Amino acid sequence: MSVDGEVRQLRTEADEPGWEVDPDDEWGVAVVATVGRQLKLRREAVGMRAGEFGDAVGYGEDLVYKIEGGKRIPRPEYLDRADEVLGAGGLLSAMKEDVAKVRYPKKVRDLAAMEARAVEIGVYENSNVAGLLQTPEHARALLESWQPAYSAEDLERRVAARIARRAVYERSPAPSLSFVLEEATLRRRVGGTMVRRQQFERLLEVGRLSNVSLQVMPMDSAAHPGLSGRIELLKFEDGTAVGRSDGAFNGRPVTDLRQLRIVELRYGTIRAQALPPGESLAFIEQLLGET
C-alpha cells in the first residue's frame, strides 16, 4: 500500500503467529466472535469496506475478515486503532481486557479463577519454583527451555498468563498462602545471574508477607510423599476444596472428601519435614549472597 508516496506494509496472518483462537475454548471463542461482530457492525455503519478499513489500521483485508469472523484474536493496538478510525468513543478499546484473557491458555485461566476464590492455597513443587512465585524473567527462562520450542508470541502469552496470576497477592482480605520448594530447584541455574538474583529477591519479598508461609525442603531430607510430584491444595470460603497430587488419582483434581484427606495428609507431611519458614528465608538469603 502507498500512502503519501510511502510504501506501508500491511500486516498479514504470517506476521502474527500465536493469535489463533483455540476451538476447544468455548468462552474464548464466544468473546472473540462477539468482538469481531462489533468490529464488523461498526465498520459497516460508517460505510467502510474491509479493504479500506484494513488500509486505515495497517492490516491486510484477509486478516480483517478473519478478525471480524472470530477466527483471529485482535491485538490491543488493533482495537485501539479501530476505535479511532471508526469513531467508537472508546467502546472498542474497552474490549481489550477480555480479549487479553482469551490469549491466556484455558488451563491457566481456570486455575487463576480458582485461585481468585480460594481462602487457602498450598503448593508443593518438586521441579520448579511455583508459578505464583516466579518473576517474569524466571518464567521466560523456564519456558524457553521447553521442547518443542514455543513461538515468540506464544512464549510471551504464556509468561503474561503466569504473571497475571500474581493478582492473588492483591486480594483483600488476603488468602492464606503456603509454598514448599525443593532446595535442588533453587540451586538450578535457570536464567543468568541477574535472573536468579531477582528470583531469590522475589521469594524473600513474598516469604516475608504476613499471609505467606514459604518453606524449603533440604536436599539431605529423608524421603517424603512429594517425591512423586507436584501437590496443590485450594480451600474455599464455603468449606469446599480441590486438590491435586501428581502421585495420586492419576494426577486429576479431586473434590471428594476422602481423596482430599489423602492430598492434605501428603502436603502436611511435606510441610512438617521441610525447613521452618524462618530458616527457609535465611537459606534463600544465603543463596542470594552466593549468586
Distance between the termini: 53 Å
Report the sheet-strand fraction.
Answer: 5-15%
Q: Give, in spatial order, the strands making up the sheet with the most strands.
A: 5-4-3-6-7
Helix-strand topology string = EEHHHHHHEHHEHHEEEHH
**Which structural category do the helix and sheet elements fall into?**
alpha/beta
Helical fraction equals 40-55%
Tally of strands: 7
Radius of gyration: 23 Å
**Silhouette:** elongated
Number of helices: 12
**Describe the biggest sheet?**
5 strands, mixed
- Give the rounded overall mean pLDDT: 89
The low-confidence parts are 1-7
What are the defining features of this structure?
single chain; 291 residues; alpha/beta; 5-stranded mixed sheet; 12 helices; 7 strands; 48% helix; 12% strand; disordered N terminus
What is the structure about, briefly put?
With 291 residues, the chain is an alpha/beta fold.
Walk me through what this model shows:
With 291 residues, this protein is α/β, with parallel strands linked by helices. The protein is built from 12 helices and 7 strands. The chain has helices at residues 26-45, 50-57, 61-68, 76-86, 96-102, 106-117, 136-144, 152-164, 183-187, 193-207, 257-273, 277-290, and strands at 2-3, 6-7, 118-125, 176-182, 212-217, 231-236, 241-245. A 5-stranded mixed beta sheet has the order 5-4-3-6-7, sandwiched between helices. The protein has a two-stranded antiparallel sheet with strand order 1-2. A hairpin with a 4-residue loop joins strand 6 and strand 7 (241-245). Helix 7 (136-144) crosses helix 8 (152-164). The protein starts with a strand and ends with a helix. 32% of the residues are buried.
